[in-house]
Every structure is written in structure tokens, then in C-alpha cells.
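Go through the following before class.
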Amino acid sequence: MKPQQNRVIAWAVAVALAGGIGTADAGGFGIGTQSGSGTGNAFAGGAAAAEDASVAWYNPAAMTALEAPRQAAGALHVLKPSFKFSNTGSTGIFAAPGSGEGGDAGDWAVVPNAFFTTPLGGGLYAGLAVNVPFGLKTDYDPLWRGQLTALVSEIKSVNLNPSIAYKISDTLSIGVGVSAQYLEAKLSSFSGLAALGNATLKADDIGYGFNFGVLFQPMRGTHIGVSYRSSIKYDLEGTVRFSGPGAAGFNGDIRADLRVPESWSVSALHTMGKLELMADVTRTGWDRVQQLVVQRTTPVVGAPAGSTFSTLSFGWKDTWRYSIGANYRLNDALKLRFGVAYDETPTNDATRTPRLPDQDRRWVAAGVQYKATKAGTLELGYAHEFMRDARVNVSVPPAPGSLIGQFDNKADIISVQYSHAF
């Protein structure tokens, strides 16, 4: 078991900030929605723009370019994904309709973020990001035809990311940061036996990583940013519990290793009078997620400690995300934002399951910035994600047959952010 201190820290952070979260809005189970200002641009120019304290997450080097270097920002994102399954020829036990097609597995979710930056003097700057980089929730109706593959799948995370930056010259800045990241996973499905009922796995851990960034300003009004965020390894520990009347002897402790991916971003921003143009390319190393092997750590009926409870195959690949955006300043108080993006999925038709029926996404976004006072700035953003239909063809041996069908997917995002300079 993990040290008690780690569990106290983890639960304190999770209760404070992660209530209600858990819906992916980027490839895999990543959450691309971090700042309210970025939503309206589909997060184009993320590592190059220096508008508010959210740069502490996107590129710490950009803290040196903030017009008001001491500021705090808080954002709230409301996400509504939709995942609706349609049967197209399931076989064996999956051909029985059960209670239906599972309903809409997506649901409303709220994702909070907070950021702070401050100058330290001598060309040094410090920042802090408290945010939610990973999340997932799909929830199907009980007894649906695919209950052997998935009922509830949920991932929650909270990230604490202090950072520091140094302005080397008027044209070059660098920044580095470290992360302490809490991750909690919950997976449930029907066991296949009425006496055992549904099986629910719960596990969590705290992992550690780092990030760094560079900001290059070759001329006035032009920013080029490069940022890197490391992968983080988790040694998840928890329990498996069965809901059936004959399950007491099968409940026990489990463990699994999971590594979330690293990412690289290259962004640019160019200002021409009242118009700002921006672009971003991000590569995420999802090929680290090939499978999740869940092992028992305590003996139960028919299974010794160290035996494999289940194996989830992913076979994911690295992904690219491309985005472009534009801002137009109407006056000193109002700025309009626009953006589009193409976000690849790491999943594939061979191993995709109802736990995460992800597919390629196309973003269309718009937003508005309102400077309410000299110190206070309000951001409103909206994005719609057009997602390709996601096909599944999955079996659960030794159960006969396969679940065969496709998901009709989409997602909407509404963001609100307030920044205050001190």
C-alpha cells in the first residue's frame, strides 16, 4: 500500500478541485480545454500567446512577455460530449438486445482551472498552474447489450505545476516547471455471472513530471513558442469489487501500471494592427498506451496474488493536433476570437471499445474578451467538436460473439475565465 501521507494529499486535492470532472475533449483521454482565453481560438498559438496567467501551463517562458506579469486567472469549462451507439450486426451473446443500445454515454462535466504568475526581479518570473490535464467518463445504461465490454469508465486527474522563467534578452526567454499529478481510475462492467454481478475496479496514484518552454520574439508583435511536457508514470493501486450476492470471496486488491503521454507544441503569433494571427502544432505520444494489465495483489478464490485479473488492449498511436486562429480588437475593451482545429485520435478500429469510442475531431470555435476594468479581464468562449463516427468490433472471451456497431459522437464546450492583474 502507498504511504498514508500520499493518500491524504491526493484526496484533499481531489475533493477540492476534481468534483464533477472527467470528460475527455481531446484525443485519447486528454483534456485540451485549459484556459478560457484559448477556447475561442481552438487553442491555436497556445505556446506563443502571452495574454494571461494560463501561460504558466502552456509555456512558462511566456510569463516574461505578459503585459501585466503579476496576475491570477480562474477558468470554468462546461463540457457536453455525446456518445450514442448503434448496433450494426452484433453476434453471439451481444446479439441479444438487452435493455437497449446503452443510451447516451456522454454527460455534462465541469472542469476548473486556476493560474498565477508574478515577477521575482532580475529577469526571473514564477508561476503556478492548478488544472485537469486528463479525464474521461462514459456511462452506459445497466443491462445494455454491451454490458460485458463497459458500463462506467472514469478517469479523474488534478495537476499542480509550479514553474519559473528567465528572460535572457529582449528576444529570448526560457522556462521550466515540475508537476505533481493525481490520477484516479474507475472501470466497471458486467462480470458475465449473475452470482458475481458487476465488477468495479478503482485505483489511484500520484505521479511526477516536468515541462519546459522557450519563447522567441524575433520582432515586435511576433512570438514563436516551443514547449514540452514529459510523460508521467503511475503505479495504480486499488480494489476490485463485485456487486453480486456470491461475490465476497472474489473481492480483493489490485494494481496496474499506466504511463500518460509526453507532448511537444510549436506555436506562433503575429500581430498586424488590430488583427492577431496564430497557429499551433502539437504532437502527443499516445503510443505509450498499448495495454493495461490489472493484477491481483491479494489472493482470492481461484486466483493467487500476482495473477492477472484482466488485460485491456489499446494499441494506440501518436497523434497530431493542428489549429489556426485569429483575434480582432474592436476597441480598447473588446476583442473577438475565432479558431479551427483538427485533432487526431490515438484509437483504431481494431481495438477501440465502448470505454472510449474516440475518433478524429474537427473544432470550430469563437469567443470574446472584455476588459471590464484596467485590472480585470473577462473571457467567454465556445467550441463545437465534429467527430467522425467511431466503429467498434470487440469481443470478451470466453463469451461467444462480438459487439459490432458504431458511435455517433459530438461535443460542445463553454468556457468562462476571469483574469485580474495586481
Residues 4-421 form a domain with the Porin fold (CATH 2.40.160.60). Helices lie at 4-17, 36-39, 55-58. The longest helix spans residues 4-17.
